[in-house]
Amino acid sequence: MDLRLKDKVIFIAGASRGIGFGMTEGFLAEGAKVVMTGRGEASLDEAKAALKDKGYDAAAMLTIAGDMTDTGNLKEALIAGEKHLGPLHSVIANVGLGRSPLGYDVSDEDWEADFKQNFTGSVALAREAVRLFMARDEEARAGTNVIFISSIAGVNALGTPLPYATSKAAINQLARTMAKQVGRYGIRINAIAPGNIIFKDGEWEKRVEERPEDWTRWIKREVALRRFGTPDEIADAACWLASDRARFVTGEVLVVDGGQVR
């Protein structure tokens, strides 16, 4: 199926590793151009070099380092992306980390830090993206969209830290509510809720290396497809949602978890 993404410009926060890197490659494979953002300039340069080694055109990639939870930084990044690659078609809020412990006894500082990272940054990016889209006329903003990367921790209670799970649930509701508000202008808002995604130097790889039998047993018990997911499988979902093939899909939280959520 041709997703008709050739030369479309996609902005991806957190593009240097894991799911963000997988989505970057997925969109490049579809012929899109990608604005790659992240906190570290060195990691972005490494990611771009790795993609060039795979045969992707360096001219189709723009790297911008900065804190994407900072409104000033992300505004500058959005503007730079349009200046260098062209009008943005899709903006993907792929931000999410957690520092808080398990259990109910979580400090105010940990709640605030995790919410800023997992929720507030995504809110700001989506708001500034929509402002950018709304500055165009109706024809020019047709097909524009925002995709949040959420988590199944925001869909089901899975025993994850409270701030992480709560912030991801908030992202899901943000996508649904914002979609209602901007749909009349032709802008789509959706979220993807990944399950357990394994990749190099990621948290799941570390856990499996430490206790391979335990985690293999757990994944086979909890996940219908009896395996971990991979970044390219999230990328496939993102490419479809960003494309005009999903032009009648908005306000959705697309669970991509191999059948874990019940």
Automatic annotation (TrEMBL):
Family according to the record: Belongs to the short-chain dehydrogenases/reductases (SDR) family.
PANTHER family per record: 5-KETO-D-GLUCONATE 5-REDUCTASE, ALCOHOL DEHYDROGENASE, PUTATIVE (AFU_ORTHOLOGUE AFUA_3G03445)-RELATED
Keyword Signal in annotation: no
Keywords: Oxidoreductase
Record protein name field: Short-chain dehydrogenase/reductase SDR
One example GO MF annotation: oxidoreductase activity
Organism of derivation: Tepidicaulis marinus
Superkingdom of origin: Bacteria
